[in-house]
Design a protein that fits this description.
The complex is a heterodimer of chains A (about 350) and B (about 260). Helices cover about 35% and strands about 30% of the residues of chain A. Chain A has 11 helices and 13 strands. Chain B is mainly alpha-helical and about 260 residues long. The chains are: A alpha/beta (about 350), B mainly alpha (about 260). The interface of A and B includes residues 17, 78, 115 and 121 of A.
Chain lengths: ~350, ~260
């Protein structure tokens, strides 16, 4: 039997009334003030997906794709126009308060820690806010302090902590009430490489340890690749992709970056779909469209000219994949409009 | 109905806000210095006015204690409208709404915590300055009445500041609302001198606002023969408190609804 989904969206739609730009002239401005004209903007359009407990899902798309709107609907802050939403078995818009006890949110650009005070004070405040009894809180805090290595930070004013230390405290603060579902919005923004690695590792470890469901939005592909197993891509409020990361790459990535080291000072690779992007003596970087020319043909071409010393084949970064997907969707949309 | 666990949440906000405000010493010291300067300037002003016979109805020394009390109430009040405006502008409010606590309730509790940190310090500054500039101390009962009613008035003024902050849900900038509000508060509240020294038309208008109860009421205890009746002042403050709670609740419900339907 399948477990009940942690998150389930069925044909969700949401649009906003946006004010039309102001006309010039005093009369037009007065008219605009008295009776403003609005137009409807679709933020989420017939979106459906579900997430099982314990899954780590990246929810991504370009700016204005409808990610934040969807997250706000899932948190019960926005009410959908149409469709059905269930989060941990509850209706977010009707049971927002009850749901809040079981959900946690981490926003990389927003802090819930009190700046002048040590994190311990904020943790105590959150204990009261989430109505956690003192004994449970103590035990939970001990676990998180050990896991996130916070013992040296607990009594240091937040203003004296580094960004990475603050983020670890933010995460601990969010997990104190033992939520079953975590919404993460750019959790590593502004952090250095080492702090990013720590936060990603902690998120993954906590999810595996507690069966915590993660729904992450981020423009940092490292967050997605190192924390999540599944990717949901939306564009203009519609679902573009729902599946695992490697399948996404295979489906949308026809270009590979190949670095070749050989005993030939300057390689000549005059093949269709192959473009040399950089060349230094004995090393050549090429982009290969594998739908036009198979990688084997590139290797053959190199071997015909000399000895192949080394070869590295890389996928394009995830953000390129997303851009390609969205551009593809835009093209299809234009074709539909033109033919319709 | 406010249950004990719910009340504990708001008390926790009061406590943490108090602790935070105490740590933010620069802000508190800045206010104390500003307060000292303001009272020094007003002391010279009222002395000069008294000597020229312009203020026949009140002695300069009681006037200075009066102003020390009104300024104490005003300067102890946190400007929550700025915090609410920033929260709305940055879009943080939608995330704060996701917590199992009332946003305006938490904001009010935070304000009360700030008042608890500021009022005692500024009260001591007001007392010392007024004594230093006049060489006179009002009777202990008067000081007690000013302190008790002044604290209640400060809390009411904090709640009214939340009303201004909530207009940020509809306006890009609440500063114009605040400026108008502040000027009306200064005049109708009798910030600089007792309301009875103002023209009758202003006195009549002021009677329809909460401001005389907030500033002039508690400060009037220092004025011989013009002090407010404590019972009546308590009734007025309670009535305005209830009215403010209704307005805050109404505005917040409208704002939340607008937010839920049309985003933040």
């Amino acid at each position: 039997m399948h477990p009940a989904p942690a998150v389930s969206l069925h044909r969700l739609s949401k649009s906003f009334a946006v004010r039309r730009p102001r006309a010039s002239g005093l009369a037009a401005r007065i008219k605009d003030f008295v009776a403003p004209q609005t137009r409807s903007v679709i933020a989420v359009d017939d979106l459906s997906f579900s997430i099982v407990p314990g899954e780590r899902v990246a929810f991504i798309g370009p700016n204005g794709a409808g990610k934040s709107t969807t997250l706000k609907i899932l948190a019960g802050i926005l009410h959908p126009d149409r469709g059905e939403v269930r989060v941990l078995g509850m209706s977010p818009s009707r049971q927002r308060r009850s749901l809040a006890f079981r959900v946690g949110t981490v926003f990389g650009q927003r802090s819930q820690l009190w700046y002048q005070l040590p994190p311990r004070d904020t943790f105590e405040l959150l204990r009261r806010v989430y109505e956690v009894d003192a004994r449970t809180h103590r035990r939970r805090l001990q676990e998180l302090v050990a896991l996130f290595e916070l013992s040296a930070l607990l009594d240091t004013p937040v203003r004296q902590l580094s960004l990475g230390e603050r983020m670890r405290c933010e995460l601990a603060a969010t997990l104190l009430h033992a939520p079953r579902l975590l919404f993460l919005d750019e959790p590593t923004i502004g952090l250095d490489v080492s702090a990013k690695t720590t936060i990603r590792g902690l998120l993954r470890a906590e999810s595996e340890r507690e069966g915590l469901t993660l729904l992450l939005t981020s423009h940092d592909t490292g967050d997605i690749e190192r924390v999540c197993d599944r990717v949901i891509v939306i564009h203009r409020g519609r679902l573009l992709w729902d599946g695992d990361l490697s399948a996404l790459r295979q489906r949308y990535l026809t270009t590979k970056r190949v670095t070749v080291w050989s005993d030939v000072e300057r390689l000549a690779l005059d093949l269709p779909g192959v473009r040399i992007v950089a060349s230094v003596p004995f090393r050549t970087d090429v982009e290969v469209d594998v739908e036009i020319t198979a990688l084997g043909h590139v290797v053959d071409a190199v071997l015909r000219q000399g000895t192949l010393r080394d070869l590295v084949v890389e996928d394009a970064p995830l953000d390129v994949v997303i851009q390609t997907m969205c551009a593809d969707a835009e093209r299809r949309n234009h074709v539909d409009l033109a033919s319709g | 109905m406010l249950t004990w666990p719910a009340a504990e949440k708001y008390l926790a906000f009061v406590r943490i806000s108090l602790a935070h405000a105490r740590r933010d010493r620069g802000e508190l010291y800045g206010r104390a210095v500003f307060f000292t300067v303001i009272l020094g300037v007003l002391s010279s002003l009222w002395r000069a006015a008294g000597e020229s016979g312009l203020m026949a109805e009140a002695a300069p020394r009681t006037l200075l204690w009066y102003v020390a009390a009104t300024e104490w109430i005003l300067m102890s009040t946190p400007q929550l409208h700025l915090e609410i405006q920033e929260t709305v502008r940055r879009g943080d409010v939608v995330y704060q709404l996701g917590r199992p606590i009332s946003y305006v309730g938490a904001m009010f509790a935070e304000g009360v915590g700030m008042v608890a940190a500021r009022a005692p310090v500024l009260g001591v500054v007001a007392f010392l300055c007024a004594f230093a500039y006049t060489g006179w101390i009002p009777p202990f009962r008067v000081l007690l009445l000013i302190a008790a009613f002044g604290l209640v008035a400060t809390v009411l003024l904090t709640a009214l500041d939340i009303v201004i902050g909530l207009t940020a849900f509809w306006l890009d900038d609440v500063a114009p609302v605040y400026w108008v509000w502040q000027k009306v508060l200064f005049v109708c509240g009798g910030l600089m001198m007792p309301i009875r020294l103002y023209p009758p038309v202003i006195q009549r208008f002021a009677a329809f606002t909460p401001f005389p109860s907030i500033l002039a009421g508690p400060a009037s205890f220092v004025l011989e023969g013009q002090a407010a009746a404590p019972g009546l002042l308590a009734r007025d403050l309670a009535a305005w408190g209830v009215a403010t709670a209704f307005v805050v609740g109404f505005l917040f419900r409208r704002a939340s609804h607008a937010l839920a339907v049309n985003g933040g």
